[in-house]
Amino acid sequence: MLAKSDDRPRPTGSGKASRKGPSLWMMAPAMAFFAFFGLVPLVGTFILSFCDWNGLGSPTFSGLDNWTSVLQQSSMYHALWLTILMCLATFVVQFPLSLLLGVFMAGRQRYRAVLAVLYFLPLLFSATAIGIAFKNLLDPNFGLSSALHLDILQQDWLGSPTLAFWVVIAVVSWCFIPFHSLLYQAGARQIPQSLYEAAQLDGAGRVRCFFSITLPQLKYTIVTSTTLMIVGTLTAFDLIYVMTNGGPGDATRILPVDMYLQGFKSNDMGVASVIAVILIVLGLSFSLVLNRLSGSDRMESQMEGM
Amino acid sequence: MSVSRRQVLVGALASAPLFALTACGSGGGKKGGGGSSGLSAWALTGGPEQVFRDSFAAWNKANPDHKFTVQYFANDSYKQKIRTSVGSGNGPTLIYSWAGGTLKDYVASKEVVDLTDEIPNLTKRAIPSVLDVGKVDGKVYAVPINNSQPELIYYNKKLFKQAGVSVPKTFDDLLAAVKTFKAKGILPIALAGQSQWPELMWIEFLVDRVGGPEPFNKAFKQEKGAWSDPAFTQAFAKLKQLIDAGGFGDKFGSVVADNNADAALVYTDKAAMLLQGNWVYTTFTTDAKKWVDEGNLGWFAFPSVEGGKGDPSNVYGNPANYFSVSAKASKENQDEAAKFLDQYNLNDKACQELIDMGLIPAVQNIESKLKASKDKDFLLFTYNQTKNAKSFQLSWDQALSDAQAQTVLTKLSAFFLGQATAKDFVTAMNGTIK
């Protein structure tokens, strides 16, 4: 994203002045980059979705074949349903936790800084490492359960179709809550202290302050974070692929995993491209809807670079 | 730096799949490729990696003008990597594969060359049934390069003795054994359900024991409705009996084969049996040396099914791994590569190295060498399994096209979890035959 320079509202001064800044041409390198690595592959994918290609030789045009076959497969709808369910579930888990954590960490006391470091640890590991680690920890025969001799932990965590889905959501949330708390922490720190002081004079308690000042003031952060959460889940691939490979059966085979398996395991690039296009449409509509719901037509983040 | 805008554009396009599309009409695949101009080969890490290293080193020493550069990759990601490289014309001169469906695709898009007349010595050395797997339409497109990999059942002698169970000869014996172990609180069979492919071994053997190799051969040849053969349904019914009797326990879905967790269940005395490839033997001897030395490891061939048509000597597995020669390489390089395969590949030295590692090279007349090995019992058993097999079939997931293999694995995994019936499987598989 293009970072607007220092024009976010401040307690003092208007900040609007920096609008008349450098010419639009300064955007050219970034735009060129985006065109080559964003738009060109996008168009390529779209064209490929009308072709038959197994990765060898050259693609042959096959008309609407891929589209009709994908749209007739019950597995696609299953994957679509799982994707939407996963978006909702990760949101329900991540939103309240990261909001509370973020607001809590916005405080200035020293011990919070120490805690914050601990909370952010998952963010430092690569998804693959996390996936492999959890896979081994959750192993019912040789994992945590046998190390700690806790029979309650001896579940078929990643092998049971009903459990695996929720385990994946738990791990994904564990992974990304730090990032979203970071957003909320930064958002919360921008709220002018004077608002709280005024509220306290009026006799408002902590809870009242949270709901009447913090939450409304974080409106744009919530929109940003929610969009990132949902789009993130829509493209969540590595962690799930490493942990479950879409399985057991097709219990965690959400669209991105399905796309990869169709493309690189079944070597059906046409079908994979169709799924990619569906994902793009889904992602765009989600973020548009979110923007509408937030009541602002402009995507106006208070976070720099987001 | 004077890079013109056009060069940048071409460069950017070349990296996108779109480039392949623009080549659509012109036939494509004209460009030289093959990485560098020299000879190159890709192989896998682990297993017999050192044998490859030694063979290539010996060749490079003898042929300083035609040296091989060899790269080694981890098994898991290799299949996607090689296919992408071959597809984009950047593949190595020697292409490592499992033959089967992938080889058929390579031949169909003219990525590999016909080696039929190029390898007279190797043709004499290799086990004929193993060599056959590298043929497409009667021509040799891939040659065996390492060890033969039949599948068999390993068992824990300690647990068998403890439960008073003898080695099962028939499916009913096996079912009875499962019930005995279950009653004693021992996991009867270790199964790496999360990896999915170990589940395939069970249905492959059962289909074979019930109906012989023919039912799958028909499916392999893409005959319409081939999967409706009663052998499949009957085999699934048998498998269901095993699953319902608790043969695999209730946590097989979390067990992964990549880290040998299934073998670990056997050598930690948690499970009694394991159906796996002969490559797992080295896992036992390295990870549980003491346990093996105490004489706890036993093995037997997959039991017969009463009234079944399949010969009990029939085996499933990987006959071997294979090298093909890239059609994108220069004629000279192709000839040199074929010479390497004929003279240096699976020669006496390489065979001895494989035997020393506890593996059986896919060549004939090596009994005396096997007898001299410290692992002779196991080596002779699996060697005879390979040599005497009336039919040595390639694992379904390698034999079928990639798309079909994916459907087989997903549906079978759902069957094991009780989420799909045999009928669902048959319908789905018939649907993949166009």
From TrEMBL, chain B:
**Record's protein name:** Raffinose/stachyose/melibiose transport system substrate-binding protein
Which species expresses this protein natively? Flexivirga oryzae
**Signal peptide residues on this chain, from the entry's feature table:** 1-22
Which Pfam families does this one have?
A: SBP_bac_1 (PF01547)
Q: Which SUPFAM superfamilies match?
A: Periplasmic binding protein-like II
Q: Which UniProt keywords apply?
A: Signal
